[in-house]
């Protein structure tokens, strides 16, 4: 039984794996661009997680079809609408982070975090 | 009048949007437009506050859609306080910003961008205060955060690196917060705060809700720089441009502490729920650790800027501490700290900016003779230092007094010890500053130069008048709030509704 429960949630475990790999990638890597990529992994994992919440097996596009009045026949549109906003937020954070990277590269001439930290302390 | 709750957000938001166009077409009126828009926003905030005090909480439905379907804005005593603080600080900082940038040698080509991001940040903070559902709250948190990353990065190369680290941590915090929302949404199917507070009590034992609460506290805790999630703050506050930090360290951080309050009491049921009560205890412990850690680290700093940054970590923790205690007096103390710390730390950062322009140093040991070359700034520094330490009649004293009353009513003696100890530690590092400013002779190398600004009435001001005006507004504000704290507690903070979750 517990095995069955485990496998019914396997998609959530995969998303958790994606999220955690992003988290550790961010802690592990010294290179600032790699940190940004790991951060994007985390954000994507969260978007997938939300989209799954609106998912129903056999659910159709949430536009009313004449004759189908059962709520369970339609996918839940709310998480998708929310994630449109979250995607915009992710886009702007990525954009602004890339801008910072250009400034950092020009000023420090490196993108290695521990190197910059060492020079900051001087 | 009926649309004030949405106008307080829209006025700064639209100002931010049209400001670049105005700067291109009519560069002369850019500043006047920017300041008058922020002043109009202060007026709106005062009207909102008056409405809340006279007629109680204000629920506004955006586009007249009913809450579960539409977006709801809620103004109650706590959020009206934060709206007023954010609008007021934004205006005062706007007064300060232009002369500061004109004199700053680092000189920025992108000043309009600063004003744009600054107004966006203001609208984000006000949005956090009035958001009535948890996803709208997320959107406003991100508006405020993303623009704050931008303004921090305007301080040059070091600031860009500090801002980058701030961005990474802030975004991770945002994903934590989103996961928390997702878990709660999965369990209840709603995002509206009022509806959640009705649906959650029977579900409070479910692991998904508890995990969601942990994620939300972690996310908001990182953004509000609670120990041990504070590591982004000192660098960002040291290298960012002064006017930006004077807003960031004050109104912006308060917004996230306020969001924690909102979740703990108006969604998760406060002390009435065993799980939430446990979370509040942990929060109180972390806040107490933050107060001590920040104060001790502040003593160890040689640079005034870094000292202020660590002092912010300590002072900001008073708000979670008050929230954690949960008696009416403690909540009033936390609300008063929102006002008091905003003005005090804002004033200190402005003085720091003045030092930077006039004395070209912020090292504490080089501040000798400052009282002679910058008498008005030294006066502002003294009053705000007294408020930080918590001596009457400044507002800082009444914050500590309310928190002590709350802690003693709740029987939390160790918190009283922490509060008293923090006052003593604050005294150690602020009296060191005051000693340097008033008693020490000036160093040979560090000499104040004459400002490029003309004399007024035969007296040469130490800094441009708008900068001094901004500092003095805050200085007298500290004294006024201190004297008027009894009135505030009685008429405003007594209206704060803990939804049955208080002690």
Descriptive overview:
The complex is a heterodimer of chains A (122) and B (503). With 122 residues, chain A is an all-alpha fold. Chain A has one domain: Helix Hairpins. Chain A contains five helices and no strands. In chain A, helix 2 (10-28) runs antiparallel to helix 3. The longest helix of chain A is centred in the last third of the chain and has 32 residues, at 77-108. In chain A, 22% of the residues are buried. With 503 residues, chain B is mainly α. Chain B is 73% helix and 2% strand. Chain B has a two-stranded antiparallel sheet.
Summarize the structure.
Chain A has 122 residues and is mostly helical.
Blueprint of the fold:
The complex is a heterodimer of chains A (122) and B (503).
Chain A: H1 2-8, H2 10-28, H3 32-53, H4 77-108, H5 113-121
Helix pairs in contact in A: 2-3, 3-4
Chain B: H1 4-25, H2 30-55, E1 58-61, E2 72-75, H3 77-103, H4 111-130, H5 134-153, H6 157-188, H7 193-199, H8 207-223, H9 233-239, H10 242-267, H11 274-300, H12 304-316, H13 318-325, H14 328-358, H15 370-373, H16 375-389, H17 395-409, H18 413-438, H19 465-483, H20 485-491
Antiparallel strand pairs in B: 1-2
Helix pairs in contact in B: 1-2, 1-4, 2-3, 3-4, 3-10, 3-14, 3-19, 4-5, 4-10, 5-6, 5-10, 6-8, 6-9, 8-10, 9-12, 10-14, 11-12, 11-13, 11-18, 12-14, 12-18, 13-14, 14-16, 14-17, 14-19, 16-18, 16-19, 17-18, 17-19
């Amino acid at each position: 039984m517990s095995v069955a429960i485990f496998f019914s949630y396997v998609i959530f475990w995969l998303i958790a794996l994606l999220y955690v790999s992003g988290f550790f990638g961010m802690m592990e890597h010294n290179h600032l661009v790699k940190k940004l990529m790991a951060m994007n992994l985390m954000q994507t994992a969260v978007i997938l997680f939300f989209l799954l919440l609106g998912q129903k097996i056999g659910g159709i596009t949430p536009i009313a079809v004449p004759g189908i009045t059962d709520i369970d026949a339609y996918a839940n549109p709310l998480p998708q609408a929310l994630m449109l906003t979250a995607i915009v937020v992710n886009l702007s954070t990525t954009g602004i982070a890339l801008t910072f990277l250009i400034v950092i590269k020009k000023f420090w001439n490196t993108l290695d975090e521990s190197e910059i930290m060492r020079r900051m302390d001087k | 009048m009926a649309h004030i709750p949405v106008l307080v957000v829209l006025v700064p938001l639209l100002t931010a949007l049209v400001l670049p166009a105005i700067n291109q077409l009519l560069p002369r009126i850019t500043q006047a437009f920017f300041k008058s828009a922020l002043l109009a926003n202060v007026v709106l905030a005062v009207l909102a506050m008056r409405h809340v005090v006279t007629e109680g909480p204000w629920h506004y439905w955006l586009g007249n859609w009913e809450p579960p379907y539409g977006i709801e804005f809620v103004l109650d005593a706590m959020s009206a306080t934060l709206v007023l603080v954010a609008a007021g600080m934004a205006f005062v900082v706007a007064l300060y910003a232009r002369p500061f940038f004109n004199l700053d040698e680092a000189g920025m080509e992108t000043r309009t961008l600063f004003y744009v991001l600054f107004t966006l940040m203001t609208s984000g903070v006000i949005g956090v205060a009035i958001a009535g559902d948890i996803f709208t709250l997320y959107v406003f948190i991100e508006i405020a955060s993303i623009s704050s990353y931008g303004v921090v990065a305007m301080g040059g190369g070091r600031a860009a690196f500090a801002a980058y680290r701030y961005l990474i941590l802030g975004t991770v915090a945002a994903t934590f917060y989103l996961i928390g929302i997702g878990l709660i949404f999965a369990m209840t199917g709603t995002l509206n705060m009022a509806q959640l507070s009705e649906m959650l009590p029977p579900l409070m034992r479910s692991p998904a809700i508890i995990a969601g609460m942990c994620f939300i506290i972690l996310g908001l805790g990182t953004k509000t720089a609670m120990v041990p999630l504070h590591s982004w703050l000192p660098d960002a506050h040291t290298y960012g441009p002064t006017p930006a930090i004077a807003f960031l360290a004050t109104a912006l951080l308060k917004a996230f502490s306020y969001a924690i309050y909102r979740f703990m009491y108006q969604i998760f049921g406060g002390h009435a729920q065993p799980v939430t009560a446990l979370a509040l205890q942990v929060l109180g412990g972390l806040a107490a650790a933050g107060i001590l850690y920040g104060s001790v680290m502040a003593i160890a700093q040689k640079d005034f800027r870094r000292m202020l940054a660590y002092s912010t970590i300590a002072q900001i923790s008073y708000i979670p501490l008050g929230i954690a205690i949960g008696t009416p007096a403690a909540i009033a103390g936390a609300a008063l700290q929102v006002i008091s710390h905003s003005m005090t730390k804002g004033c200190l950062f402005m003085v720091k900016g003045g030092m930077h322009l006039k004395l070209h140093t912020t090292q504490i040991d080089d501040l000798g003779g400052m009282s002679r070359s910058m008498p008005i700034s030294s006066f502002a520094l003294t009053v705000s230092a007294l408020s930080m330490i918590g001596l009457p009649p400044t507002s800082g004293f009444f914050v500590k007094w309310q928190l002590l009353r709350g802690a003693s009513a709740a029987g939390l003696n160790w918190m009283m010890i922490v509060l008293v100890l923090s006052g003593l530690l604050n005294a150690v590092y602020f009296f060191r500053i005051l000693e340097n400013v008033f008693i020490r002779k000036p160093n040979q190398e560090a000499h104040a130069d004459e400002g490029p600004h003309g004399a007024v009435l035969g007296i040469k001001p130490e800094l441009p008048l708008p900068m001094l005006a901004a500092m003095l507004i805050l200085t007298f504000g500290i004294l006024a709030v201190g004297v008027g704290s009894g009135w505030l507690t009685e008429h405003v903070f007594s209206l704060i509704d803990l939804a049955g979750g208080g002690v």
